[in-house]
Amino acid sequence: MAEQENVKPGADDQQITLIDDKGNEELYQVLFTFDSEDYGKSYVLLYPESASDDEELEIQAFSFTPDANGDASQGDLYPIEDDDEWSMVEEVLNTFLADEDED
Asked: Which secondary structure element, helix H or strand E, spans residue 86, and what is its range?
């Protein structure tokens, strides 16, 4: 189970630009970041900045190395390739979304 000590909703409007294999850039908004003691990593969940409020969001997840301020927008993003790690990230996301629905 992941420790959710540092779950930080994207209230500070952090944005990250992702570049695909063809060199196309797309701006993403940080949904939230969290740390996992089990995996010894920090994670960031993103959604496209261009998404409208009435459409289903395509959420991207990456591990990252935070900067001195714990920021995800200044460092490198790494793909999550382990199935167990993906399951943990999905569990944290589902908990976050359930908590948001309660508010």
From this structure: helix 83-102
**pLDDT tens string 23-50:** 999 999 989 999 999 999 999 999 998 8
Looking only at the bridges linking them, the beta strands covering 60-64 and 8-9 are unpaired
What's the domain count of the chain?
A: 1
Closest CA to 31 of 99, 102, 78: 99
Q: Is residue 2 part of a domain?
A: no
pLDDT at 103: 66
Helix (H) or strand (E) holding 29: strand 25-36
> Which residue range is the domain that position 53 belongs to?
8-66+78-102
State if pTM tops 0.70: yes
- Residue whose pair of structure tokens reads 């948001």 in the numeric block: 100
